[in-house]
Amino acid sequence: MSTASGSARAPLTRSPNRLVATIFGAVYTLVGLVGFFVTGGVDFAGTEGASLLGFEVNPLHNIVHLLIGIALLIGGLSSVSAAKSVNGIVGAVYLLVGILGFFIENTGANILALNTADHFLHLVSAVVLLGVAIGADKSAARARVA
To answer: What pTM was estimated for this model as a whole?
Structure first.
């Protein structure tokens, strides 16, 4: 019993899921906040946005980054199982968005003003988040089942 609670509350630096969720959460939250400084005058859900380090953003895209960042931070700062769950969910969504982005980029469906740089960033984020969710912190999952 104590093994399960000990694993679930593993220190941030001893859990790859907690560490990755917290780092990604901080980065995505920061990107969401900084994005508002460059999107003045950009349509809220416009198909074209302002450039932020080569990535296109609009205010809706900034809000999405904030929500994802906050979810990852909450998961990463909570427990191993919460971090694993949020990493898996966000990773799966980013995999889908990364793939679909290539098909909607030059259409009216591109309400997040996604560009090619965004698609590759989403795919890389998906691989890291899903990889950690699936492959790391196995002992915590086994302890929870036992």
So the answer is: 0.86
